[in-house]
Amino acid sequence: MKIYNTFSKSKEEFIPTKKGEVTFYMCGPTVYDYFHIGNSRSFIMADIIRRYLEYKGFLVKFVMNLTDVDDKIIKKAIQENTSFANVSQKYINAFLEDIKKLKIKEIENLPKATDSIPEMVHLIENLIKKEIAYNVDGDIFYDVLKFKDYGKLSGKKIDELEAGSRVEIDEKKKSPLDFALWKKAKENEPFWASPWGDGRPGWHIECSAMSAKYLGLPIDIHAGGNDLIFPHHENEIAQSEAATNTKFVKYWIHFGFLNIQNEKMSKSLGNFFTAREVVVKYSAETIRMFFAQSHYSGPLNFCEDLLSAASKGLEKLTNFSDRLKTFEQNTTGIGITPEFDFKNYYSAFENAMDDDFNSPQAVAVIFDFIRDVNKVLTDVQDVSVSFLNEAKMFLERTAQNVLGIVDFSSSQKQYDDKLQNDLIELLIDFRIKAKQQKNYTLADEIRESLNKLGIVLQDQKEKTTFKIMN
Ligand code: AMP
Ligand code: ZN
To answer: Which of 47, 170, 196, 224 has the smallest count of CB within 10 Å of its CB?
Structure first.
């Protein structure tokens, strides 16, 4: 399996530190608002990569952090006259609801930054001891010039960075590139105690501390959107490697931006749609299909035509699964098992995903598979149950379990619910007919029998409705 490593700028063979295990750290959201569909591209592609590693048999230790203290959260708390913790908890809850709606696999490890302050303080102490960090009146800065490899991830050179005046001038800093590890407490801001006085951590130190705390170094895969390469990930390397003298990360994965009219979708530009509004209009499967049809690393334009096209593509998948179901219902039980090389399709799917998670190619393999099985179903009318099961299993393992572009369990549930409701309606009709024929004994028997099953009929003027009691 090969992964494009941002660090080496090349595709490398993937060899995790511990055989059979992968540690995977993903930079999560700053919880000051609902996340947008651009953020969800990064979350969903990370989810697909995680699921594929599991498909390959790795035990994946996946951690996504929640930045729950930050300037934007504090600003919002002041605006809303509430505490920063109230703001962050509200948007953590929203985040959990939204990732569930997007069918992102449950993440067991979602640590909040504020739960790891002692680890951050410890890291900073270490950097101060090594004279890589310095204290200016309670603010602690990282001395970038002390880390000789600074810029090795982003390929940026320190002198060029210094010359470019995009970095804010702060008189307290030795170099404009130095960044805050600890921010001295200000009025109306949350703070924690530290050896340098009250304050709060900087953003970059959070990820250095939490990744080491929950996964240990070196981490096999560290991922995030392209915007995080510099300065966030560059600074994480500088902090972690200087403090521990250990390699921080083996493989860096970065997700391309979701753009709107070729401009990055972002909160600050205001050109965004929240994930929660998009998932109402298009299903999670459609959104995932839309993302899976492009390689994770390139830019992608958000437009409704492409989402509609993704939804059309999905229809082929659901029609096919319906066709399999119909065949299953009509099988004689003595049908034949046609010659069909399922292994070929598994290999093609794996070859695609092994090549730096080429999900568009993997989607193409799934459509080839559907086309070829459809041909068989047309040629051979009575196929065996085992053939149908194998076809279904291929889709379950690839389209459902890895890409998450179809959900057989929910379509089966929808089908079951519909069937249940239709059957109840049928009994209601029979009861009406019984009453019309003055057969009140039968009418009452229907009502009572349904009652025993927890289904309560409610007679209204025009019609009878029902309620299912739990
Ligand atoms: P934030 O809450 O802004 O830190 O973003 C959370 C995650 O979403 C990070 O991994 C970002 O790099 C990623 N991200 C932000 N904007 C976009 C975008 N337009 N397209 C793809 N990923 C994004
Ligand atoms: Zn991070």
So the answer is: 170
- Segment 22-68, tens digit of pLDDT: 999 999 999 999 999 999 999 999 999 999 999 999 999 999 999 99
Q: Among 1-10, 155-164, 309-318, 378-387, where is mean pLDDT lowest?
A: 155-164
Assign 333 a pLDDT band (cuts: 50, 70, 90): confident
Q: How far apart are CA 128 and CA 150, in angstroms?
A: 17
CB-ligand 1 contact for 36 (6 Å cutoff): no
Our answer on whether the CB atom of 228 is closer than 6 Å to any ligand 1 atom is yes
Angle in degrees, CA 192, 215, 102, rounded to 5: 90
Q: Residue 102: which of 317, 404, 362 has the closest Cα?
A: 404
Domain spans of the chain, in order of start: 2-292, 314-406, 412-468
2-292 to CATH, choices 3.40.50.620, 3.40.50.1390, 3.40.50.300, 3.40.50.2000: 3.40.50.620
Nearest-ligand number for the alpha carbon of 302: 1
pTM confidence score: 0.88
Give the ligand 1 atom nearest the CA of 39: 8
Tell whether ligand 1 has an atom less than 6 A from the beta carbon of residue 255: yes
The CA 148 to ligand 1 mean position distance, Å, reads 29
Question: Does the beta carbon of 265 sit less than 6 angstroms from any atom of ligand 1?
Answer: yes
CATH topology of domain 314-406: Four Helix Bundle (Hemerythrin (Met), subunit A) (1.20.120)
Cα gap 155→122, rounded to integer Å:
29
Question: 142 near 183, Cβ under 8 Å?
Answer: no
